[in-house]
Amino acid sequence: MNRVDAQMEAFKPLRDGIALVASVIGPLALYVLTMPRTVVLEDDGLFLMAGAHLGVAHPPGYPLYTLIVYLFTQLPFGSVAFLGHLSSAVLGALTCGCVYVCVRLLGASPIPALIVTWLFAASEHFWAQAIIAEVYTLNALFFFGLYALLLYGVRQPHRTGVWIAAAGVYGLSLTNHWPLMVLSTPGLMILVFPIWRTLYRKLPLLLGISLPCAALPYAWMVWRSHQDPLINFYGSIDTLKEFWHYFSRQGYAHIDASPSAGWQDRFGFMQWLGNEFLWQLTLPGFALAVFGLIVLFQRRQIAKAGSGLLVFLGNSIVLIALLGFDFDFFWGAIFRPYSLLCYGIAALWLGVGLQVVLDWLTERLSRGPRSKIAMAVLVGVAMVAWSVHEHWRANDRSDSDFAERYADMQLDILPEDAVLFVFGDATGPMGYYQYIENRRPDVALYNLQGLVYGKRLYDPFLPKENKEEVLEQFTDSTERALFFPMDFDIFPNRQGRIYGFLMEVVKDGKPGTIEIKRHPRGEEYFTYLVHLQPIDRWERVRRNGLLFQYGRYLGLIYFSGDPGLLDSMQELFRLSERSYACLIGMAATLIEHGNNSHWEQVSAWLDRAETLKHEALKKQTLARLYYLKGSLLQKQGKRVEAVASFAKSRDIYPHPDNKALEALEQYKVNFKRVNPPRRESPKPVLPFPP
């Protein structure tokens, strides 16, 4: 060995250590630079509240993640939102370190391993989850930490300490997102299959470690649910049946399996996910990942190749087949973080492929090790730089204030000592500012479903009619002003006072009447929403929902026919025609309350909405357009056209909640899809008697 080779050999441990540290520090810096400084949507507000107050989050509870967020919020700097997001950033960065170790154990040298780790860190979907309070970076950390332990354990099967650590990590992983970990378990079993006899002898010990690690955090969660925390999703967990309902996520059964979703939706998700795989690690990275998987099979490393492939398929194809999501923009946003492990597995294959390519190039170019390192650095820096550049705009949320603006608008409208009921996506942000930042402590905050907040009027499992009865009794008994979201149905025996995005119940008013109240903050916020073009998927969906609410308000103003009011609101009506959701809201209100004098205007709004239908981010909202068109045609006496429009709405969203199905049933129409063997002229649809 010459002197240069000796120096390079001595440098290897130091180089490996530097690369390992860089695999963690680089992603951490990226995440801290781009993470939001205040609460955002998704489940961010819920996890921030649960963590800060040691509460109980949504099913299956995520007790370990709650404790981690709590520990971060005790740090003596930054806001709770900043520290909660920092917890995900740290977990994400540590995941990247585990990916680096896995790539090294698969045979890649430090530089290629560092490159693929940074590519994984900069992938759009993993990056997006590493900058908000969410559980998916912890899930990835558990998986790749466990994968690294198993890769090492297969090399050293008699090191009991490694298997004890692996058993503990696996048990703890079930206290986080256990469904994703269960889907990954067959791949983990394949990885250790070559030494199954050794593990079989250690099985009692490993179960003795794994089961308590899984059970203790859940036991703490159950105990904590009885301590009346400020955040307690369902309330106290009193029986084994209630715990199973919580742990098994039975409350999400109607969400996980939509009655309108079919195999066409599943194929849509598969196609969408396939396209994502092409770009998450860059297109050259995807090609190298496929090549790396082939190399593993060619080398007859069947367990390593097969384990990764099973994990990949379990968190993509199998998961899509098990779920019953409608395929649209919104459900794509929900599904997006479920496949983070797939991108990490692809990064492992990429490391193998990149190492083989660099070795081949070095041999062909007859250059020394320095040239090999320089070549790897050059290629890697180019790929990582391209990935960061492409995904920066989507994930730079350092100045995100969507949720804060929404909360401020509502709090500014509320009078002193008001009661505000929230629903859905508003629950997290409003709860964050109420229970953490203590904004407007005079306002009493409740969730309409009886969820999340420890302070609730009724049990979340109470039947709907009983909830409405309790709500009526509360309305009669309180002297405080009661405010609801604009999209909440007005009490049939109450008067409603509408402020744009909020509705106040007037207890002593004329039953069933609506009083319109203008508020500058609401109008200012509406103007902001119309001009806003958010990048984040959740913000885009929430923006549309809010614009629909305000559209209903504008529809009521138009229905009032007040010349002075209409004249003063002309600018807002002009802005409303730039938004699909707002046009739909206005049209829905006039169809519900209007008469023949309004149909021409409704038709114009719906025609305008049809030109903007690309803004409909859900099947449900697109189907509503054609349901409203059918309703208008029905009121105009055009039954044939109405039936056709209702049928189009049904075909877009064949869900029982779609009122077009009820309308078609009333017409007693039984449409059947017919595929004739040759093209024929369409036959006219004949009207049916009502």
Itemize the secondary structure elements and their pairings.
Layout: H1 3-34, H2 44-52, H3 63-73, H4 80-105, H5 110-121, H6 124-129, H7 136-155, H8 160-173, H9 178-191, H10 196-225, H11 240-247, H12 253-256, H13 263-280, H14 283-298, H15 302-322, H16 329-335, H17 340-365, H18 369-395, H19 402-413, E1 419-422, H20 427-435, E2 444-447, H21 464-477, E3 482-485, E4 495-498, E5 502-506, E6 514-516, H22 520-531, H23 537-560, H24 563-568, H25 570-576, H26 580-593, H27 599-611, H28 619-635, H29 639-652, H30 659-666
Parallel strand pairs: 1-2, 1-3, 4-6
Antiparallel strand pairs: 3-5, 4-5
Give your account of this protein's structure.
The protein folds into two domains: 19-395, no CATH class; 402-516. It has 690 residues and is mainly α. It has helices at 3-34, 44-52, 63-73, 80-105, 110-121, 124-129, 136-155, 160-173, 178-191, 196-225, 240-247, 253-256, 263-280, 283-298, 302-322, 329-335, 340-365, 369-395, 402-413, 427-435, 464-477, 520-531, 537-560, 563-568, 570-576, 580-593, 599-611, 619-635, 639-652, 659-666, and strands spanning 419-422, 444-447, 482-485, 495-498, 502-506, 514-516. The chain is globular. The chain has a six-stranded mixed beta sheet, with helices on both faces. Residues 1-11 and 669-690 have low confidence and may be disordered.
Salient structural properties:
690 residues, mainly alpha, 2 domains, 30 helices, disordered N terminus, disordered C terminus
* Principal-axis shape: globular
Radius of gyration: 29 Å
Compute the average pLDDT.
90
Note the total helix count.
30
Straight-line N-to-C gap: 95 Å
Helix proportion = 55-70%
β-sheet strand percentage: under 5%
| Poorly predicted regions | 1-11, 669-690
Return the structural class.
mainly alpha
How many strand elements?
Answer: 6
Biggest sheet record: 6 strands, mixed
Can you tell me the number of structural domains?
Answer: 2
With strands numbered from the N-terminus, the spatial order across the biggest sheet is 2-1-3-5-4-6
